[in-house]
C-alpha cells in the first residue's frame, strides 16, 4: 500500500515527536508514505480569516502535487485535513481559479480515519505484542477534524469513534466523555491567551473527572496546548499521547523514558503503574 | 402631518444606554443580500432559536452573540458588526454551523465578516489577533512554510505587540516557555523553506498584489 503524505508545518517543529512515531508505526504496518516533495503550508486559520480565496488556493498546490503522483493523501494534522478538504470541495464546485491542473479525483484521509478502517485495524491487532491493559484513556478529537461534517465527511460528528477504535485495538480501556470535539482554542492562543487557557483547562478538568489516566489526541496543536498548560495547574499530571505513540508502545518491547522526553507532562509514572515501563 | 410625525415608524428607538439607533429596515436590505450572495448561506432563514450561541464555546467573550450577528445582518447593521470583538474572537470551531436547525452557516458568515473587516478602514477591536493573522500570511509568503520560532519573533516585532507584552508581564513567561521548548528539542531554529517558494510568491503577487 502506498499513499502520499502531507505532514504540515507543525510536524517539522513543535510536533517532531509525532512525525517520528508516525514514521515508525507506518513502517511496522508496511504502508509506504511518500512525502509530497515540495509541499507548502495550507494557510491554516490566518488564510481563511483574512483572505478566503487564498485559503482555497494554497492547499490546492499540494492536491495538485499528489494527483501528479497518482496517490491519495493522508495527513496527520487536523487543521491541514480540514483545509485540504475545504479546498477540494471548492474545486469540485468549480469555485476557484487555479494555476495548476486539479481534477479533484483523489481521497483525502485524516490519519486516524485511515487507520480505523477494518482491514487496517486487523493488521494493527496482529502487530500488538504488549497490549495496554489497565490504561484508562479518553480520546480527544478537537474541532477541525470532525467539523463541519459537510466538508470533513464525518457522519458521526456528535460522537466520533476513529481514535476510540484504534486505542481499543491497542488494548487500552477507552472511556466515554462528552468533550471529544470541544475546541481547545489553539487558534487564538497567541492573541488572547486567557480565552485559550480557560477552554483548555475545562477539557483537562473533565478528563480527570471522567477518571482518565491519559488523553489520546491526533492534532499537534491540541497536544501542545493540553500538555504545556499543565505546568500552571498544581497537582495535575495527565500525559497527553499522540495516538501513534500509543501504537508504538504496544508494538515494540524497548521503550524508555527518553522516548517521551519531548512531553512536558512525564508519562513515566502512569506507564510504570500499568507495567509497560520499568 | 402631525399625526405622521408621531407614528411608530418615525420615532427613534431608545436603547438601554440612552443612545439612539436607527430603526429597523432604514438601512435597506442590500447588506443582507450581499452577505447571502457571498457566503452562499440563507441568512434570512434564522428564527433566533439561539442554538448557535448555546453551542459556542467563546460566546461569553463576545460583545455581539452569534445569533445576534445574524440579526444584525438582517437589519443591515454592518459597521457595528465590523467593529465588534465577535468576529475576531470566533475560533472557527464550526459548532454553530453544525448544530443550526436551519442550516445557516454562521461560522462562514463570521469568517466573511472578518474578511470584510480586514479589507476595510475600520480598526479591528482585537488588533492583536488581526496582527497575528497578518504576520502568519507574511511568513507564508516569505518561506512557504511556517516555523513557530520565526513566526513568534516576527509577531513580536509588529508595532505595539512587544510593548504590550512587557506591560502585562507576559514576555517573561513567553521567554521561559521558549527556553524549555528549546531544551526539549521542540523548537527548530534553522527551518527549511518550501522548495516551491518561488511558485508561492508568484501566486501571492498574482492573487493579492505586492503587499510585503
In short:
The complex is a heterodimer of chains A (278) and B (212). By secondary structure, chain A is an alpha/beta fold.
Keywords:
heterodimer, A: 278 residues, alpha/beta, Glutathione S-transferase Yfyf (Class Pi), Chain A, domain 2, Rossmann fold, 2 domains, four-stranded parallel beta sheet, 12 helices, 10% strand, B: 212 residues, mainly alpha, 2 strands, 2% strand
Task: Characterize the structure shown.
The complex is a heterodimer of chains A (278) and B (212). With 278 residues, chain A is an alpha/beta fold. Chain A folds into two domains: 2-112, Up-down Bundle (Glutathione S-transferase Yfyf (Class Pi), Chain A, domain 2), CATH 1.20.1050; 130-273, Rossmann fold (3-Layer(aba) Sandwich). Chain A has twelve helices and eight strands. Chain A has helices at 16-28, 44-50, 52-69, 78-92, 111-115, 118-127, 149-152, 162-169, 193-210, 220-228, 243-251, 268-273; strands at 2-5, 32-35, 73-75, 108-110, 136-140, 173-174, 214-217, 240-242. In chain A, the strands form two sheets. Chain A has a four-stranded parallel beta sheet, sandwiched between helices. The longest helix of chain A is centred in the N-terminal third of the chain and has 18 residues, at 52-69. Chain A is globular and about 55 Å long. The two termini of chain A are 36 Å apart. Chain B is mainly α. Chain B has helices spanning 2-5, 30-39, 51-55, 66-75, 78-82, 86-89, 95-99, 106-118, 127-143, 148-156, 161-168, 170-183, 197-208; strands spanning 13-14, 20-21. The termini of chain B are far apart. Chain B folds into two domains: 16-118, Fumarate Reductase Iron-sulfur Protein, Chain B, domain 2; 127-208, no CATH class. The relative contact order of chain B is 0.09. The model of chain B has no long low-confidence stretch (mean pLDDT 86). Chain B has a two-stranded antiparallel ribbon with strand order 1-2. Classes of the chains: A alpha/beta (278), B mainly alpha (212). The interface between A and B is large, with 50 and 58 residues.
